[in-house]
Amino acid sequence: MIKLVNSFLTEHDKEKVNNFLEDYNNMDPIRELKNKIKQIFQINNCYPVNSGSSALHIALMAIGVKKNDEVICTTHTCVAILNAIKYVGANVILVDCKYDVNKMDYNIKLNDIKKKITSKTKALIIPHMFGVACEIEEIKNIGIPIIEDITLSVGARFSDSSLIGTKGDITVSSFHRTKVISADVGGIIWSNNQKYEKNICDILDYDGMYSLQYKQTYNYVMGDINAVLAASQIDQLEKFISIRRKNADILNMELRDIKYINIPDINKNNIYFRYIIEINNEMTSEYIVNEGIKKGIQFGRGVFPALHNVLGLDNSNFVNSERAQKKLLSIPVYPGLSKSDLIYICDTLKNILRS
Ligand SMILES: *Cc1c(COP(=O)(O)O)cnc(C)c1O
């Protein structure tokens, strides 16, 4: 079975983990990871944590989001974001996604955000979906704190060529094994805003919990072995991205003459964490996913179900996400695939589309 998602552990990763285990007491992998991330994103500090969900929870607490506040987010994303909003007791306000097949842009529909803002809105969570930057410049001037979630797009760039994760008030990422960077489990959070930065530091101050003045803190810090893996994967990020782009080129070449689909344009800012096409005959992505499994290939649907589905909200307010769930197909594109895997995937897809 060719899986849709595969974490890609290399010899480099294994060597780094082995070296660490040999010299466990003399290494400081958390510091090493922090230094690498600080250098890439040109930031003063960052905090490795035990998951992306924890990072989101900390971000909302650091901003001071509380019970009955509102947090705006795209419906077309994963449940972890919804969970984090629930952890602080806030209400989630969902916005539909864009639907741009050529740009592979299914990020939050910026125009709809403004309509949803009320006096209770305390934060916007913006996940950059599938490897493509959500251009947040135009929503920064609204003045509501923005949490950038770069989990699915680490290394992707905005149209002005700056890295995603550099424009929001707080940036979070998961390093779960199914994401761009694998620490097995883990995540990271940082902020250039001094107030938020101090709050993040206080929330994570597990060592300080024996001070005389009680304050509640969270043991959300990352484990050392996870940090070794994350740092090792970050060393290889550029290589991983270039393999993804090469794989996307192969898929584009193989799929460009097929009548029944629309494919994304080649875009140098996209890291192709997913490679998503639109089916334009009468078939649904659900049908193709099921046919693919019979042929040994796991295709996906991008996001399914979306958050408005999970919450039982009225579908008619989320037409793009609904359409995306019916007509978009996610094709394996990760670094571990060989050229012959990719060609087999495309041939199989062609056969299903013609059947
Ligand atoms: C998976 C995911 C998370 C949650 O990360 P975990 O490490 O699994 O808790 C958060 N945000 C996005 C966009 C994700 O895809």
Task: For the structure shown, list the relevant keywords.
single chain; 355 residues; alpha/beta; Aspartate Aminotransferase, domain 2; Aspartate Aminotransferase, domain 1; 2 domains; 7-stranded mixed β-sheet; 3-stranded antiparallel β-sheet; 13 helices; 13% strand; binds pyridoxal-5'-phosphate; PyrdxlP-dep_Trfase_small; DegT/DnrJ/EryC1/StrS family aminotransferase
What can you see in these coordinates?
It holds the Pfam family DegT_DnrJ_EryC1. GO terms for molecular function: transaminase activity. Keywords: Aminotransferase, Pyridoxal phosphate, Transferase. Belongs to the DegT/DnrJ/EryC1 family. With 355 residues, this protein is an alpha/beta fold. The chain folds into 2 domains: 219 residues, Aspartate Aminotransferase, domain 2; 118 residues, Aspartate Aminotransferase, domain 1 (Alpha-Beta Complex). Helix content is 39%, strand content 13%. It has 13 helices and 10 strands. The longest helix has 19 residues. The radius of gyration is 21 Å and the shape is globular. The site of pyridoxal-5'-phosphate has 14 residues, from α3 and α4.
